[in-house]
Write a structure and sequence with these properties.
alpha/beta, 20 strands, binds iron/sulfur cluster
Length: about 725
């Protein structure tokens, strides 16, 4: 699965008056065009209403060369146009919108002024050819002048967007030379976050009509407007192969830079994404003001086209994640990112929402204490989760590996099981979930009894000793329905162990039956329950739960339900879902809850870290959450082992979440169990996991052996069934 990004923006063409005369442009005018402050304020309010995150300020170049524009600017109290743009950006920031400006060629002081109020800026290089016919009458289209502005932005540490126009009279080799010129500036300053490969499309003339209005109308209608226009003589024909070459060249020359393809200017955005393009640009809620007759395709439609090809279309901000630091952003702008869009800030060890001191000095002592099985304080655990120093992480790994060896030896266990998610219909709506569906969703399903029996029989034929059953929170199901599935499974396979029903499902049974958890477990036991999954834990911190699953049961209730299970003699697993919006100190709290509960009841069989799969979830699509890296995943694994001490003996790696290769590596990071064969896996798959839905026992044995360790097939309660 690969992410393809876009930004939800609103375009403000503050002034279309321009000093240049580019032949391809229908946007610019040489008459006076400038929105008044009250019009700007109204448009900004409109932008907020439309739910965008970015304000794209597009303008003609140096409009104040027009005396009427200069006069109006003076009337509004601004010495020059840059000052007026800065004012509009400030007003946008006040509303929580992040400005990205593109004003043409600028001087250092202008870039500097805009840096104070923008999250990013941009200037197309357009072409490396200095004397194109289309640029006659536009001296600032000379590549030297444009590269100077792009370089100045680098010196000023401004996150920057640039790109080339393709098909305006240049030769194929000129395009590559343009990209090479951008790559050279980027190599010097590292400030180019994305390169736009924009194919030229001919436009009609608008003769006094306002492109912004045409664009907005076309965007609302969702269809291309206007007549077909024949390409002028100076245009160079381009085809998909030309664009493919450029995408590849761009990736080769600037591997760390995004490659943007406008999806409204051709049908070839999809093959170009498959060829390596990473971004579909700013999809303006009010249309494309430069090519107003070409509305952007709907996000929903693009997502549907991308998903089956293994791409997840996700939102980004106008500033790319690596630039969300005080070094690259003015503090006032960074404050807006932190306040409104903190989940887009990449994880860098410490928290994103608030700065809390991380006590790195505590790490060596914490590792030693953890290795001895002692309780770690919240500060110590926080420091372990936030650790970034490679040598300290290696010490954590060794300590976790030693503790594992001491507690459970070298054997690597696994269970032959089958997941059955009877229905994905769910009314809870957790933001991290790609599985739950509304009843009317075309992706909703509900197995009937025959299908359920077929799946149980298939599992038994494949040698499964366990059926793991979890579903969405189905609004029509009552306790009797849940009992019914257990009974049906037992009628079909009397000896199979039923590992079923998350605490959220149990909570639903309590709600619909008006029984307390203890009584519900009694009924479930009678119906054939063997043990229960300690899922729905996510992060056991109500602050995190508020952010990612506000309708889910609170921490206190999760504890009550699990405690009731353990008291009733129903053992459970324990889990954590990490690698999303949680902060290190919130994970520390989660581990305190798990360990205290285990010390009270001893009912947990294992602890299963589940790293968050972002791709087809609301959190991933709209909150910028990326998949946790393999390195971070492994570091957390070691920290979990040290946090548990001797309380929970078994630490499981989820191959569905991290892949079998990383799960095999995790056997050196404190893990002793590889979980189950699963046979079918829907929950992670529907969130976009790409690690498959089943493994054979041979594959799990192979993974253990690849790590130089003996493999053991176990049952759900960790009794040995077969040693390999
Ligand atoms: S995580 Fe569970 S409760 Fe939440 S939406 Fe998904 S299926 Fe429903």
């Amino acid at each position: 699965m690969r992410r393809v990004t876009f930004s939800r923006n609103f375009t403000l063409s503050l002034s279309r008056t321009c000093r240049c005369y580019c032949k391809y442009c229908s946007f610019a005018t040489h008459r006076a065009h400038l929105y008044a402050p009250d019009e700007v304020e109204r448009m900004l309010d409109d932008a907020v209403r439309r739910g965008v995150k970015e304000l794209l300020v597009l303008t003609g170049e140096r409009p104040e060369v027009n005396p009427e524009v200069a006069r109006r600017l003076g009337e509004y109290g601004h010495a020059d146009f840059t000052s007026y743009v800065a004012w509009a950006c400030e007003r946008a920031l006040d509303r929580g919108l992040l400005p990205h400006t593109n004003l043409g060629v600028l001087e250092r002081r202008e870039l500097e002024r805009l840096r104070e109020v923008t999250a990013s800026q941009g200037l197309m290089l357009e072409s490396i050819v200095p004397d194109l016919v289309v640029h006659r009458g536009s001296p600032t289209k000379h590549p030297r002048r444009r590269l100077r502005t792009i370089r100045l932005a680098g010196e000023l540490r401004i996150p920057f967007t640039s790109g080339i126009l393709v098909g305006i009279g240049e030769a194929p080799e000129d395009r590559v030379a343009g990209l090479e010129a951008l790559a050279a500036v980027h190599a010097e300053y590292g400030h180019i976050q994305e390169v736009i490969l924009q194919n030229y499309v001919p436009h009609p003339r608008y003769y006094g009509r306002e492109p912004a209005l045409i664009a907005d109308e076309a965007q609302r209608g969702g269809e291309a407007r206007g007549e077909d226009v024949t390409a002028p003589e100076w245009a160079t024909p381009i085809d998909l192969d030309d664009m493919r070459t450029l995408v590849r060249e761009c990736r080769r020359l600037m591997p760390d830079v995004g490659v943007q393809i406008p999806p409204n200017l051709s049908d070839w955005w999809l093959p170009l994404v498959e060829d390596g393009a990473t971004d579909l640009g700013g999809l303006s809620a009010n249309g494309d003001h430069i090519s107003p007759e070409h509305p952007f395709p709907s996000v929903h439609r693009m997502r549907k086209q991308l998903a089956p090809r293994g791409f997840a279309l996700t939102e980004r901000l106008c500033v790319y994640p690596q630039y969300m630091t005080p070094e690259w952003l003015d503090q006032g702008v960074l404050d807006v990112v932190k306040r409104k869009y903190w989940s887009f800030i990449p994880r860098r060890g410490s928290g994103r929402r608030e700065e809390r001191p991380i006590r790195r000095d505590l790490v060596p002592g914490a590792i030693a204490k953890g290795r001895d099985g002692a309780w770690l304080s919240p500060d110590e655990l926080t420091a372990l989760f936030a650790e970034t120093r490679p040598e300290a992480i290696e010490d954590m790994r060794q300590a976790a590996d030693e503790l594992r060896a001491e507690l459970v030896g070298d054997e690597v266990t696994f269970v032959v099981n089958r997941n059955i998610n009877v229905s994905n219909i769910c009314v809870v709506g957790c933001a991290f979930c790609g599985f739950g569906q509304g009843r009317r969703s075309p992706d909703a399903y509900e197995h009937d009894r025959e299908e359920f029996v077929r799946r149980v029989e298939e599992a038994i034929e494949a040698g499964a000793t366990e059926i793991c059953m979890q579903s969405g929170i189905h609004p029509d199901w009552t306790l009797a329905d849940y009992e019914g599935w257990l009974r049906l499974a037992k009628e079909t396979a009397p000896d199979v162990h039923l590992h079923a029903y998350s605490p959220m499902e149990v909570e639903h049974m309590c709600d619909t039956s008006a029984l307390p958890p203890a009584a519900v477990f009694e009924r479930l036991l009678e119906a054939g329950l063997g043990s229960t999954p300690g899922t729905a834990a996510e992060v056991l911190h109500d602050g995190v739960r508020e952010r990612i699953s506000p309708n889910k049961l609170p921490v206190k209730r999760w504890i009550e339900i699990i405690e009731a299970a353990h008291t009733a003699g129903v053992r459970s697993s324990s889990t954590v879902m990490f690698g999303h919006v949680e902060e290190p100190w919130e994970l520390a709290e989660h581990m305190r809850v798990i360990r205290s509960l285990q010390e009270r009841t001893g009912g947990f069989t294992e602890f299963v870290p589940l790293s968050f799969i972002p791709f087809h979830t609301l959190l991933g699509r709209t909150h910028g959450i990326e998949e946790i890296s393999r390195e971070e995943n492994l570091k957390h694994t070691a920290a979990f082992r040290l946090a548990l001490g001797r309380s929970v003996r078994n630490l499981q790696a989820s191959w569905v979440k991290m892949g079998l290769d990383a799960a095999t590596e995790s056997l050196r990071w404190g893990v002793n169990d590889l979980g189950g064969t699963l046979m079918e896996e829907s929950i992670s798959r529907m969130a976009g996991s790409y690690h498959g839905t089943m493994l054979t026992p041979e594959q799990l044995v192979g993974a253990a052996q690849a790590a130089g360790r003996p493999a053991v097939q176990r049952d759900t309660l960790y009794r040995v069934l077969e040693t390999y």
